[in-house]
Amino acid sequence: MLSRPTSGKVLLRQFALLGLAVIGAIVLVLSLMISSVLRRDLLEREWITTADYVRAQILAHLTPAVLADPETAEATERFERFFQQVATMPEVFRVKVYAADGTVLWSDETQLIGRRLGDNPHLNGALAGQTVVNMESGAGKAENAGERNVFARVVEVYVPITFPKASRVAGAVELYKMPQQVFASIRRSQVTAVATVLTCGVVLYLSLFWIVRRAARRIDEQHRSLEHRREELARTNQELVAVQGQLLEAERLAAIGEVVTAVAHGIRNPLANIRAAAQVAGLGSRDSRPSVPTTKHLANIMAEVDRLEGRLKELLQFVGPADRQGAPVDLNAVTREAAHMVVGKMAAAHVTLTQILAPDLPPVSGNAMLLEQVVLSLLANAVEATPGGGDIVLTTGTTRMESGAQVVFVEVADSGVGIPEQEVSRLFTPFYTTKAQGTGLGLAIAKKFTEAHGGTITFSSRTGAGATFRVALPAHMEA
Questions:
Q1: How many CB atoms lie within 10 A of CB 331?
Q2: Which residue has the higher pLDDT, 201 or 272?
Q3: What is the mean pLDDT of the segment spanning 85-93?
Q4: Residue 374 pLDDT grade (very low, low, confident, very high; cuts 50, 70, 90)
């Protein structure tokens, strides 16, 4: 069949969603990238400027001697001048000076002087010689417990104290800044960048949407002109396939029927005579009884004649019409009878049969003998597929179709070798068999009689794990 062309409306809808998602993702990524770059560059410039100014003030006001003995009057004076100079920087409102071991040498908060705050990772980084900026909330620190609302919005800048010709970091300076102007400038730059990117994204999306909309209209026009032709071709193709299949099936069955009927009628009478002669020979006379080997051979002759008679019966059933009747049939009774007929065959094959028959099973409409033949064929096939012993489960029950109609089913599951994948397509083909003694008609007859009753036959299988056949028949409807 011809593939159904894509509708213009579907194309437009897909683009509307996909295009919006893609362009939206691009706009989002660009906005985040630009905002991140702006924020990083502006803040980096701000912290570098602050750190350079602090280093200049350190060299101007602090000495190693001041850090070594911070309690002298000269040291206190130098710390005060250092604080006054640093505090002149915009938005700086708190300063701490630390010794190399993390002890607070001087602070505008006098209660912190003398405390050791070495558990601060940012301070430890500064004491290692790095300029560290902490933009996270400082409200969680113990020294800031009394001013949580203020320190939730500050930035901490840690600058190492180094002196010329000194091989070690002498200490560190911690500044608290509230860079509202810097953040406001960053926000303005970010808003401008995001607005520009968003505007470009909207213009791009609307332009592409207009182009795709025109293309969608043309696709719809072509679709409408081709739809009628497609439907006509599809109907014609279906009719041709159906007629061709019916003709081939009718020709094949007609030819098979003529040959089978002629052969069957030509063979049945000689077979009956052969069996009768073998039976009479087996009885012998009063004066001479046949020997044991002769009796065995005569019994084999009669068994083979009976087997051939059964094969002829299958052939005639296959080519003959399926005379379906509308009388209600108890599928449980039919199933039990079919199971009883293969008890001997199952015993010889060492196969165990388990019957799970649903109580109060609704009747089905049809011919009891034909339905019995269906179940019998499935059971015989299951026994042959379970060599060397195994299990067969015979189940009946009910289910419902999508339309809501009630369906009665019988299911035959075996634990045999399963159905090879290469044989699945030819499973119900007449005269196709993989068994040395088979005719290839058992499943074909089951399929023919099932479909004659308006039912379906399905199967499932896994190689080496058995197969399951299910016959589903519509429940009997009272007139």
A1: 28
A2: 201
A3: 84
A4: confident
Q: Average pLDDT in the 136-147 region?
A: 55
Averaged pLDDT for residues 79-88: 88
At residue 228 the predicted structure's pLDDT band, cuts being 50, 70 and 90, is confident
Confidence of residue 340 (pLDDT cuts 50, 70, 90): confident
CB 309 within 8 A of CB 271: yes
**Per-residue H/E/C for the chain:** CCCCCCCHHHHHHHHHHHHHHHHHHHHHHHHHHHHHHHHHHHHHHHHHHHHHHHHHHHHHHCCHHHHHCCCCHHHHHHHHHHHHHHHCCCCEEEEEEEECCCEEEEECCHHHCCCECCCCHHHHHHHCCCCEEECCCCCCCHHHHHHHHHHCCCEEEEEEECCCCCCCCCEEEEEEECCHHHHHHHHHHHHHHHHHHHHHHHHHHHHHHHHHHHHHHHHHHHHHHHHHHHHHHHHHHHHHHHHHHHHHHHHHHHHHHHHHHHHHHHHHHHHHHHHHHHHHHHHCCCCCCCCHHHHHHHHHHHHHHHHHHHHHHHHHHHHCCCCCCCCEECHHHHHHHHHHHCHHHHHHCCEEEEEECCCCCCCEECCHHHHHHHHHHHHHHHHHCCCCCEEEEEEEEEEECCCCCEEEEEEEEECCCCCCHHHHHHCCCCCCCCCCCCCCCHHHHHHHHHHHCCCEEEEEECCCCCEEEEEEEEECCCC
Task: Provide the token pair at 323.
Answer: 């005379």
CA distance 379 to 391: 11
What CA–CA distance (Å, rounded) separates 229 from 235?
10
What pLDDT, in 10s, does the model give residues 457-475? 888 887 777 888 888 888 8
The encoded tokens of residue 302 equal: 């009669």
Q: Are 374 and 334 in contact (CB under 8 A)?
A: no
| pLDDT tens, residue by residue, 177-198 | 877 777 777 778 778 888 888 8
Judge whether 363 and 330 are in contact, CB under 8 Å: yes
Q: Where does the pLDDT of residue 280 fall: very low under 50, low under 70, confident under 90, or very high at 90 and above?
A: low
**Nearest in space to 126 (alpha carbons), one of 55, 39, 45, 60:** 55
- Average pLDDT of every residue of the chain: 77
Question: What's the predicted TM-score (pTM) here?
Answer: 0.39
